[in-house]
Sequence to fold (575 residues):
Amino acid sequence: MAPVLAFAESRGTALRKAALEAVAAARSIAGADPVHALLVGPPGIAAVAPELGRAGASTVFVCEHAGFTQSNPEAASALAADRARSGGYRAVVFVSTAQGRDLAPRVAARLGAPLATDVTSLVVTGDEIIATHPVYSGKAIATLVVTGAPAVLAVRPSSFAPEQTTHTATVETIAPIGDPSASRVVVTELRTGGGARLDVAEAPIVVSGGRGLKDAANFAIVEDLAAAFGNAAVGASRAVVDAGWRDHGEQVGQTGKTVSPSLYIAVGISGMIQHLAGMRTARTIVAINRDKEAPIFKVADYGIVGDLFEIVPALAAAVREARRTG
Amino acid sequence: MKIAVCIKRVPDTETRIAIAANRTAIVETGVKFILNPYDEFAVEAALQLKQAHGGDVMVVSLGPDTIQETLRVALAMGADRAVQLKTDGAPFDTLSVASALAAELTTYAPDLVLLGKMAIDDYNHAMGPALAELLGMPCVSAISKLTVADGRLTAEREVEGGVEVVTAPLPAVLTADKGLNKPRLPTLPGIMAAKKKPMEVRPAALGVARVVVRSLEPPPERPAGRIIGEGAAAVPELIRLLQTEAKVL
Fold:
C-alpha cells in the first residue's frame, strides 16, 4: 500500500465538515499507511491544519494564496493533481459536495486516473478498491471495482464519520501551481443569504414539507419546527418545488438532493418513490400525514396520523421544552 | 455560436427498478425511458442561446441504437443535428465515456458545451468537469442561472448554504442544474421536423474502463413503518421515542 491523500474542503479560512469526512474515508482505506491532507485557502487557512491532524492526518500540505479567497476550482485541481503525482498515493479522496463534485472529475481527468463518485463504502482488496455507490437514486446499490493507482474517490457526505484522535500533524507549506489569481474560472461572489443557513444535504436533522401544507405561506410551521431543533434544515418535496413554493436547493428526492440525516421529519409528504429514494438512508424517519395509507408510513420509524396544522406546532413546542429541560 | 449538448437516455424517475439476472444491469423491458431531466435543462439553455445569438445546436449521445429515440426528442425540441456515438451497452466509467465525447467535440469545435449536472441513473455528477479537462476548456458545474455576452459567461451555482457567482471565457463547458430554465415540450411540427434532421452514427472511441460495475443489489430494507398514534396527542410519545429509542433529541 501507499499513503492516501484527502482533500480538505474549506470556505474562507474555515474548515468544512467535509474535510474531516475526507480524512476519515482516507483512513478507512489507508490501513497502516499514512493519510495526508491537502488544504488550500487564503492566507490564514493554516490555522485550521491541527484539526486535520486530530482527525487522523499525519501530514497536512498547506497552500495559502489570496487567489483561494473564493473557491478556485482550476487552481485547486491543478494543485491536487500535482500533489497526487508527486506523493505516490494509492488514492485521492474528496467528498461529493458542490466543490468536491466539481474538483474530483477534474483531478481524475488530469491524472488519467479512475474515478468513483458518491461512494458510500470503501474496501481495499489487493490492487482493487471496491466501492459501493447508490444508483437510480438509491433504488439500487452498485458495487464498483476500481483498478489503478491513484484512484480518485469522492465519498457521499455523512457516509464516513470523522474521528477525534490525539494525533498532531506535520505541516508542510507548498506553493501553488502557476498563479491562482489567473484562473479562467473566477468565483466573483458567494452569496450566503444572511446567516449560517444549514444545507439540507449537510444538516443532521431535516424537516421537509410537502403538498399537505396546502400553501407556500404555511411552510412557516415547518421552518419553526426546524428552528425548534436548532440544528435542522428545511427540505421540500418535488411537488412543492415545482409549484414554486420553495427553492430547488431544498428539494429532496431523485431530481433533488439525497440526504442521510440522523433524523428526517416528513410533514405532509405522501412519499412518492422518487422522494423515498432521496431520504431512505436517514437513520430515523418521522412522518406526519393526514392519510394513514400514505406510502411514507411504510418507511417511517414513527408515524403520526392526523392534521399537520395541529401536530407540527405541538411538536415544535414539545421539542423546545425537551431541549430546555434536557 | 456553436453549441454541443451531451445527453443521456435514462429510466423515468417514477420507474421501479428490477435487477437483471446477470446482476450488473436493470431489466429494461417495460421500463419507460426519458431524456435525463438535467439534460433537458441543458438542451433548453442551448436553444435559448441560439435564439438570442444565432448558431447551431448539436446533440450527442453515447450508447446503443435505443438512444436514437432520445436524440430525436432533443431534435424535436429544436436542436439542429444529432450524433450517436455507438456502443453495445451503456458504459459506466466516466473517463472512458468522457474521452469518446471529447474526441467527437474536438471535431465540432463548439463555443459552448452543455450537459446536465448528473444523469439520474448512474448518479455520477462527473461528466462535465472531466470532459472540460480533456477539452482544455474552463468549466462551471451545476449552474442555475446563465448569461452569455461578449465571449464571456456569467453563471450562478448553488453550493451548500449559498450561491456562487462565477465568470469564465468561452469556449467553456457548463453543467445544468434544476432552476436554470423551464424546458419546452416538443411540438407536433417539431416532432415532424425532427424526422428529417441529420443523425450521424459513428463508433464511440471509448477509453479504457477502469471502473466497472461488479454487481447491483437492492438497497437494504428499512424495518417496517410504525404508526405511533393520531393527532397532537401522539406528540409526547414521539418525543419520548426520539429521546430514549432513536436518541436524536
